[in-house]
Design a protein that fits this description.
Structural class: alpha+beta
Bound molecules: (3R)-3-hydroxy-3-methyl-5-(phosphonooxy)pentanoic acid
Radius of gyration: 20 Å
Helix content: 25-40%
Strand content: 15-25%
Low-confidence stretches: none
Shape: globular
Distance between the termini: 32 Å
Mean pLDDT: 95
Length: 361
């Protein structure tokens, strides 16, 4: 699909009012997206596990206005008006207006809530933009009932990308790939696709425990981090490496090669943070407890032969990845050994999920 496929249809009989609700999950990248050009076109392809428990639920109520000049909206976060989120949503809606021409006809009330702490390094913008995009697509579907499911989900992912790049990977389930890759049929810079190759069942139920090392605001936002990949001395090699890693991941995912998976995923995480540390200006998002946790994971893996590994987002938190069959012993390890490095001892048990769902009002 191209940009033209996402232009709006000719709507008739706009409803006076209505309400839609979607719940969209967060995602955790295995091969990381870091570096982009306008607007959220990735410098390299990426792939992520879609999560399950970490999610945003968003309702959009819409009511027709008398004037058709521009859209308007109110925003509630966890039940309270949230003025400081509004500029981001305003920019997003302005950006996607040409793809959803009904926007200007309505006043929207957007109510959103997360199952996890905001700005904890868990991609709240990913699940948030995905949930909002799905709500808006749901309204478009009411105006154009013939729209098929593949266009519906591809356009939802396309819109979500315009809100926050990695959000385009939070629509569908299990494994989602985003960014043009010569060897991945159907791959696109414009939206995420369900990973089209064989995946061993071990990865369909993989667990991810998010160790909340630092729940505060990040020192450097990912927007700034992406920018710093321009003129970065290692950027070109990094972008090539991400593409090769997607090739390398194919047999690993097909065969359930956990050893190969661990090497690739941990290397991707550390490379992402190495890019941050070698930017100009340089910065570091890992905290001492991030390092303590990583060392303890390595030690535990060596001593017990349990296939646990870590990955990192653009933050200090650690995602501990492991097969569901090792759940019990790994969760004991977390409780007994890793929890002491988490802020207030907090962590969230999550696992690979099926993608966003519609909630009936
Ligand atoms: O979608 P953004 O702009 O917040 O960037 C997210 C980038 C990483 O989380 C660090 C990697 C990724 O691919 O999700």
């Amino acid at each position: 699909m191209t940009e033209n496929d996402f232009l709006p249809g000719d709507y008739q009989n706009l409803p006076e009012k209505g309400k839609v609700t979607w719940k969209a999950p967060s995602n955790i990248a295995l091969v990381k997206y870091w570096g982009k050009r306008p607007v959220q076109i990735p410098a390299n392809p990426s792939i992520s596990f879609t999560l399950d428990a970490c999610a945003t639920t968003t309702s959009v109520s819409f009511e027709k206005k008398n004037t058709k000049e521009s859209f308007s909206f109110d925003l509630f976060f966890e039940g309270k008006p949230k003025e400081d989120f509004k500029p981001k949503i305003q920019t997003f809606l302005e950006r996607i207006e040409i793809y959803l021409s009904f926007l200007k006809e309505y006043h929207f009330t957007i109510e959103t809530s997360n199952s996890f702490p905001h700005s904890s390094g868990i991609a709240s913008s990913a699940s948030g933009m995905a949930a909002l995009s799905l709500c808006l697509m749901d309204i478009e579907k009411q105006l154009n009932p013939k729209m098929d499911a593949s266009l519906f989900f591809a356009k939802a992912s396309y819109l979500a990308r315009l809100g926050s790049g990695s959000a385009c990977r939070s629509i569908k389930g299990n494994l989602v790939q985003w960014g043009k890759h010569l060897n991945i049929p159907g791959s696109s810079d414009l939206y995420g696709i369900e990973y089209p190759f064989e995946v061993n069942p071990v990865f369909e139920t993989y667990c991810d425990t998010i160790l909340l090392v630092h729940k505060g605001q990040k020192q450097v936002s990912s927007t700034v981090g992406h920018q710093l990949m321009h003129n970065h001395p290692y950027a070109e090699n990094r972008f090539k490496q991400a593409s090769s890693n997607l090739d390398n991941l194919k047999p690993i995912l097909a065969n359930g090669d956990l050893e190969g998976f661990i090497k690739l995923v941990e290397s991707e995480a550390l490379t992402l943070h190495a890019m941050m540390m070698t930017s100009m200006p340089y910065f570091m998002l890992m905290k001492p407890d991030t390092m303590e946790i990583i060392n303890k994971i390595w030690q535990y893996r060596e001593e017990t032969n349990t296939p646990v590994c870590f990955t990192l987002d653009a933050g200090a938190n650690v995602h501990l990845l492991y097969p569901a069959s090792d759940k019990e012993k790994v969760r004991d390890f977390i409780k007994d050994t890793l929890a002491e490095h988490c802020e207030n001892g907090q962590y969230i048990h999550d696992q690979v999920g099926e993608g966003a769902i519609k909630i009936n009002n």
